[in-house]
Amino acid sequence: MLADRKYRVGVLGASGYTGADLVRLLIAHPNTEIALLTGERKAGMSLKSVFPHFVGYDIPDIISIDEVEWPAIELDVVFCALPHATSQDVIKGLLHSLNHSILDEMIVTTTADQANSLRSEVKVVDLSADFRLRDTETYAKWYGKAHDATDLQKKAVYGLTEIYRDDIKKADLVACPGCYPTAALLSLIPLLKAGLIKTEDILIDAKSGVSGAGRSLKEQNLFVEVSEAMHPYGIGSHRHMPEIEQELAVASKNDVTISFTPHLVPMNRGELETIYVKLEGNETPETLKAALLSAYENEPFVHILEGSIAPATRMVRGSNNCVINVFPDRIPGRAIIIAAIDNLVKGSSGQAIQNMNLMLGLEETTGLMQAPMFP
Ligand SMILES: NC(=O)C1=CN([C@@H]2O[C@H](COP(=O)(O)OP(=O)(O)OC[C@H]3O[C@@H](n4cnc5c(N)ncnc54)[C@H](OP(=O)(O)O)[C@@H]3O)[C@@H](O)[C@H]2O)C=CC1
Ligand SMILES: CC(=O)N[C@@H](CCC(=O)OP(=O)(O)O)C(=O)O
Questions:
Q1: Can the peptide bond before residue 190 be classed as cis, meaning omega within 30 degrees of 0?
Q2: Which residues form the signal peptide (predicted)?
Q3: ipTM of the predicted structure?
């Protein structure tokens, strides 16, 4: 890949929170040119009128997905920042319009030459939950509907970059993890892989800023409902549980059942997870920390904090970083792991761009090295 090449990028769902953060990061990315922005209710508006903070930047107007002339627009990458269930139909439709090579067995042409000449290699990075679960029945159970693109569901690569880097480099369709799973999995996978913690009794207490719920109008997200207050939701039933369990099972080579309770806290961005684990055999909080330090030694975005510094959302705001630390628990044989990310960056748009960089053969950190904003 040429270091100075500009890739043509489209953002579906640019009028939402993750879409807007994608635009913010893509503006500063040296190898991307924003060629398409879509919205639903905001179609026909300029992005600057939807998000006035983009004043001064040369960005295309928002159009409806139905208006996109797919092959002609010649995109190299499509980010899909749409609600789950919508995303699968849109991605299936666009890959068919493009006669994409991922659809190999579905392409109906008379000759192999014809098929090759029509094939597109556009890269698709989905931020929604639609392609994260590998099992069709698990998807139907937790998302309340049958999946409309099961062939693609099987071909998508789970986009937890630090764990699936080699697969992501070769992928055409990447399913970025949910924000809660990102922090939980980065904390737990190296420990389960090394057999340092038990697969039972993993308790995840999670907190998110309100932008995690998206920009569409919902009564429970009004200022009066969320300010000066904090509340749990999805207790025992949140759809991120099967996603976290799926990936922990891969790491431990055993079934894992977790307890996971998310809370909504009155801040715009940020996510903090306090994770209680049971140690295996003679393991200690110190051996857990040593394992995390070793696993993430060369990682640009995952940082294990020194001493007893407690991860906090203010340490990662606006950045693609995940900060983690391990603490002893007063209950013998247990440890406490705490992780913080920005849900709109490492939890969605930043990780999506990290994956795009790999898919295009660019340096993984390109456009993502902004330091966190503090205060
Ligand atoms: N917010 C977060 O922290 C995270 C979000 N995600 C996932 O990323 C995706 C986007 O989230 P987020 O940005 O928060 O959501 P928002 O609700 O803020 O934005 C959704 C976007 O999708 C568009 N849209 C909605 N319905 C349709 C439709 N039927 N057809 C076409 N476009 C449509 C909206 O357009 P318009 O507004 O113009 O109607 C808007 O641009 C979701 O799947 C979410 O679960 C993943 C990780 C973290
Ligand atoms: C605060 C809040 O509401 N957060 C969202 C999760 C955001 C996210 O990661 O959503 P996806 O899995 O849909 O991509 C929720 O709990 O549903």
A1: no
A2: none
A3: 0.98
